[in-house]
Amino acid sequence: MNDFTYYNPTKIEFGKGKENNIGAYIKASGIQKILLVYGGGSIKKTGLYERIITSLKKSNIEFEELSGVVSNPLLSKVNEGIALAKNHGIQAVLGVGGGSVADSAKSIAAGAKYDGDVWDFFINKAKIADALPVFTVMTLSATASEMNGNAVIINDETKQKYSIASVLVNPKISIINPELMATVSQDYLAYSAVDIIAHSIEVYFTATVHPHFNSRIVESIIKTVMETTEILIKNPADYDARAEFAWTAIQALNGLTPAGTGGGSFPNHMIEHALSALYNVPHGAGLAVVIPAWMKWYKANNIAQFQRFAKEIFNTQDADEGIIKLENWFAKIGAPVTLAQLNIPREGITALATNANALASVWGLGDFYTQEVIAEILKKA
Amino acid sequence: MNDFTYYNPTKIEFGKGKENNIGAYIKASGIQKILLVYGGGSIKKTGLYERIITSLKKSNIEFEELSGVVSNPLLSKVNEGIALAKNHGIQAVLGVGGGSVADSAKSIAAGAKYDGDVWDFFINKAKIADALPVFTVMTLSATASEMNGNAVIINDETKQKYSIASVLVNPKISIINPELMATVSQDYLAYSAVDIIAHSIEVYFTATVHPHFNSRIVESIIKTVMETTEILIKNPADYDARAEFAWTAIQALNGLTPAGTGGGSFPNHMIEHALSALYNVPHGAGLAVVIPAWMKWYKANNIAQFQRFAKEIFNTQDADEGIIKLENWFAKIGAPVTLAQLNIPREGITALATNANALASVWGLGDFYTQEVIAEILKKA
Question: Which CATH architecture has domain A11-180?
Fold first, then answer.
């Protein structure tokens, strides 16, 4: 087992109606004025927006608004939020929505306390030293952004989908009410399931060491996500399945699964970021295409763990069969598994490989994941 | 899945040599003077004491000392620490030792910020509203005190073994260096294993609801503890097994396993506290005696979960066989499984039942766990 630091100070308020307390939670933190960040307005249709505003007003929390965050969130929108925060004496950022909104809220929180260009943090030119407190009310479970310090943003000019990681942008409080997630489409449920599985397997397969406990936690997460996804496809109103799905999503990327493993890398995310950046595909859909291809390419590097995966998740001794069964499961729940299904032409692979390799270099993986290797993986998709 | 709040702000610094940074960690928290709490002096024999002092001095941290904490920690010692803290302008409490030392450090931290009698917190007469920051360097893994807000203390006058729970006494930073645990005797390794299993199964069997994810986490903990205990009995120097044992111990009682289950109760701990209070037996030894007896008595209340336990842990369909196999495993690793092995006479059961029922009343379980019921359970032991 490797040395590690585990620190996750986010408080999770989980359950029905908890969003109605958001004003009180913010007030208890000594905050009087916030920036409210959300997406395309679905929270207005569902009535959530009204409930949030009512709760804020009840606690005398003033607020400015930033709407229009899109599902692959953009730097231009983040910069808009930073300007609002700086010009209006904003003391905290509240994101109401899914992972993109949470990631935008975190990026704004970091940028609002920085004199330079917030993109500096994404390209490792500067390190986050301070940030406004972040709060979230989640309407979608997948990224675990609600309980970590990560944020992923697309630079709309350079077409780079890059990330930050700092405990300073861990939400202070995240509200998870599974009822708010009941209207998610089956497509997005499937993409979310794939994203959670991706978070689980990246370190599971690429880590330096594999403590049994960590492997067992990852397998517990994957089994639970698969089980609850199948229940939710049949019955989207199943509260318990929705709740377990939401809580399991958080555990997949809140620091628990890599602790002691040496950390591993995130090649599937790295390659997928190119797909999202250049073709604007949903993150989970892109991952569903990348993962089976990457697994086929990578398996020889860690055959024992691929055999373990096959046995624990699909009850088969054969590593290849484990990969095929996961691919089939992605297809079964309605996720794409080929580039063609994403309408990405074979000729696009070169540009994707170049884009992904640039990110690999930022992450210190550029020598292993060369353009040629990434192209080879994508050709399997 | 029930509503819940999850919040655990303890930072874990896990790995070799991390205790040498304790001074720097404390200084980074803006603290200049601490109370150093430890046990009977084994940390002096191992050289750990010297390394801690060196680290404190290097960071210019002043300190007072409180030694002599015993393995069922006493209120009188806690009060001694509170007086020291109040009289010497102590700003934080550092516990170096096992769970008893950590629990004493937390109790001192709470008492130092309270004008009344610290025992008020244990009998629910007052609620902890403030506490000094707590730091720990652990030399034994079992109680998970290093990552929770719990503390258990024996009132030496009234012979009550009672507890507190508040996030205000969660350690700010806990240092877990598995190397410091390599000299633990086989007896105490066995008692620790039993304690970890006890923490895992209390809520697993008594909760209102049983999300699959929570059950899977508990089963992952139990499997890992059993596996690593067996390795450590054969080879106490196995670092990886020691490290997994230590990290798994923490997960068993840091708030993860009960989240969403409705919480359950802690009847095995409740009954064992009477054994420790009246006969001063090691906590884990007492639990090893109580658990199989309680399981036999309770199983009809939740037969499905007992069957699940039997299947997942011991690969048998039969609930009774699961209990017997656990009892046999306790015996195999060297833990006692009868009151006789603890030198507790049958005539002692009445006084034990009275003591445990008094605690049951404090915990709101007095109607279910009457003196008669507790005596009936103890007779099975």
Answer: 3-Layer(aba) Sandwich (3.40)
The full set of domain ranges for chain B reads: 11-180, 185-379
Q: What is the pLDDT of residue A166?
A: 98
- Do residues A154 and A276 lie in contact, with contact meaning Cβ atoms separated by under 8 Å? yes
- Counting every residue, how long is chain A? 381
**For residues B71-84, average pLDDT:** 97
Could you give the count of Cα atoms lying within 13 Å of A204 in the half-sphere of its Cβ? 29
Got the DSSP string for A134-182?
A: EEEEES--SS-GGGSSEEEEEETTTTEEEEEE-GGGS-SEEEE-GGGGT
Residue tagged 């299947």 (tokens): B311
d(CA A205, CA A299): 8
Distances (CA, A) of A285 to A112, A243, A265, A289, B360: 32, 22, 20, 7, 53
- Cα(A296)–Cα(A3) distance, integer angstroms: 30
For residue B256, the chain A residue with the least C-alpha distance is: A251
| B41 has a pLDDT exceeding 90 | no
Cβ atoms within 10 A of the Cβ of A50, count? 11
- Give the pLDDT of residue B250: 98
Say whether pLDDT at B136 is over 90: yes
Whether residue B292 lies within 8 A of chain A, CB to CB, comes out as: no
Instruction: Identify the closest residue of chain A to B213 by CA–CA distance.
Output: A224
pLDDT digits (tens, 9 = 90+) for A298-331: 999 999 999 999 999 999 999 999 999 999 999 9
Q: Which of A342, A148, A124, A348 is nearest to A253 (CA)?
A: A148
Neighbour tally for B177: CB within 10 Å? 23
Checking ipTM against 0.85, whether it exceeds it is yes
C-alpha distance from B252 to closest chain A C-alpha (Å): 12
Average pLDDT over residues B164-177: 98
A252 and A200 in contact (C-beta within 8 Å)? yes
CATH numeric code, A185-379: 1.20.1090.10
The answer to whether residue A41 scores a pLDDT higher than 90 is no
C-alpha to C-alpha distances, B370 to A267, A270, B299, B328, B375, nearest whole angstrom: 58, 59, 18, 28, 9
The answer to whether B243 contacts A6, with C-beta atoms less than 8 Å apart, is no
User: Using an 8 Å Cβ cutoff, are A329 and A226 in contact?
Assistant: yes
Q: Of B2, B243, B259, which is closest to A260 when you measure between CB atoms? A: B243
CA of B261, closest CA in chain A: separation in Å? 11
